[in-house]
User: What shape does this take?
Amino acid sequence: MTALPTTHTFSAGEVVTDTTMNNSITAVLNFLMAPPILRCRQTSAQSIPNNTITAVVFDTEDVDSSGMHSTVTNTSRATAVYPGWYWTGGNVTFAANATGVRTTSWGVNGTTQNGSGTDFPVGSAATTNQLGASGSLFFLNVADYLELRCFQTSGGALLLDVTSTGQPTLALHWVSS
Assistant: This one.
């Protein structure tokens, strides 16, 4: 388990050393000034089956300050390395299609989280459908994982758009213990 840095409780008469100060104050401040963050994207289009909740896979990392994501194993997952509250953000863009609905939601450890979804009725067959996953706050223990999930009912599989403006994205930011 990766432990969060903690402050030292000083007592009367204690001799303060540089080690105590560094471990107690500097480590905490350094952590708070650069908390764990992740932003990953999908650059190779993923096929989303009809009527199936599907975790979005990510093959590119813009930043991963604490090793929360792998581009080789379980590429749909952002795994907590520190316990605490994480702020999330994400989006997907579906290929143009005028049939059915599109949704996004957050999943923690494989379970869709209540109140985290965004539903989008489709419009014209000539337009792509971009959905943002609502920014949400989740408490994750060490090794808990978060996934951006999507769903569509077009009647057949649909590709996610990976053009420069439509790349599916997942962002995660540790905010508090």
Q: What stands out?
A: Helices lie at 18-33. The first strand starts at residue 37 and ends at 41.
